[in-house]
């Protein structure tokens, strides 16, 4: 159908970018629609598109022209996308780091075993399972705080403890994303390649897959339990539960916000609008910066913030 096509020409080849444009293009559809049925070669080079942009464009080539130009080595030919990724990606070696940071709009199978594969898929609403858990922690934590402190006006200190937990989460979010998820593996270490791939590489390779954004509940609950037990060393019981409530609240807000940034269209001049642009830059241009997702506060503190360019017109996703 006509409304399902948007053709552009680049270096003699023709591309139908409709499916990518209407869902995922970081620049939005209003920037691209004026180039329908036109040659975008000079425009893309003038606007200094990233290597990722050219990589994604190749996925939508429909007609190969007679330009005779040789394409760059396609790293995807080193992987059989019809087979599970486990058992393949370590063969990439030193090329893994480049491969994993070149996103594709494809479906990926991780395991051949259907049961194991099912555990790698997490719908966005699964994060809501933390809400009743958090309510229980809040009720228990409030009771214990009043019992142990004999507080007569506990509302303000309880709110401050919860807010401290939320703030603590934002710091952990930044720290884990930067120093754990983006710790690049050596091409010689098969184990580290798989650790990186399972922790965060999957999301960077297929950022458009809505079922592989949320961290699976089972490993998340184990990590949360470990952090809670660790907190017992440093914090008294009277405050530990309430800080934990704030921490989990921050985590749930982060996961939902992360999904929103990838798959929704925030309105212009809103916080979500600016953070969607910010996070797009992290995925498609600067994977070495912009580690904050729910906030860019810690990026500014640690000097890893991404400066967003002033737009001549607003982006419409």
From TrEMBL:
It is found in: Endoplasmic reticulum membrane. GO terms for biological process: fatty acid biosynthetic process. Residues 1-62 form the Cytochrome b5 heme-binding domain. Binds 2 Zn(2+) ions per subunit that likely form a catalytic dimetal center. It is an enzyme of class 1 (oxidoreductase). Its EC number is 1.-.-.-. It is a multi-pass membrane protein. One of its GO terms (cellular component) is endoplasmic reticulum membrane. This is Fatty acid 2-hydroxylase. It comes from Zophobas morio.
């Amino acid at each position: 159908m006509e409304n399902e096509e948007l053709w552009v020409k680049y270096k003699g080849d023709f591309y139908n970018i409709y499916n990518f444009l209407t869902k995922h293009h970081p620049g939005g559809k209003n920037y691209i629609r004026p180039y329908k049925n036109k040659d975008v070669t000079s425009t893309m080079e003038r606007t200094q598109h990233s290597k990722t942009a050219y990589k994604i464009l190749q996925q939508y080539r429909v007609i190969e022209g007679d330009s005779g130009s040789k394409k760059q080595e396609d790293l995807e030919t080193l992987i059989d996308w019809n087979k599970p990724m486990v058992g393949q990606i370590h063969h990439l070696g030193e090329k893994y780091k480049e491969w994993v940071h070149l996103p594709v709009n494809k479906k990926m199978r991780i395991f051949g075993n259907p049961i194991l594969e099912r555990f790698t898929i997490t719908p966005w609403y699964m994060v809501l399972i933390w809400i009743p858990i958090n309510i229980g922690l809040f009720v228990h934590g409030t009771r214990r705080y009043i019992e142990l402190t004999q507080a007569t006006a506990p509302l303000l200190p309880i709110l401050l403890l919860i807010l401290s937990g939320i703030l603590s989460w934002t710091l952990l979010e930044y720290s884990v994303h930067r120093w754990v998820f983006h710790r690049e593996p050596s091409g010689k270490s098969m184990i580290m390649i798989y650790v990186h791939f399972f922790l965060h590489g999957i999301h960077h390779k297929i950022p458009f897959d809505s079922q592989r954004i949320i961290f699976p509940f089972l490993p998340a609950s184990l990590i949360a339990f470990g952090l809670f037990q660790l907190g017992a060393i440093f914090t008294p019981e009277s405050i530990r539960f309430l800080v934990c409530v704030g921490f989990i609240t921050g985590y749930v807000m982060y996961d939902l916000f992360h999904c929103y940034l990838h798959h929704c269209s925030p309105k212009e001049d809103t916080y979500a609008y600016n953070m969607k642009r910010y996070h797009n830059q992290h995925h498609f241009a600067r994977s070495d910066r912009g580690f904050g997702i729910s906030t860019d506060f810690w990026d500014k503190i640690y000097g890893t913030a991404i400066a967003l360019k002033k737009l001549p017109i607003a982006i419409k996703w």
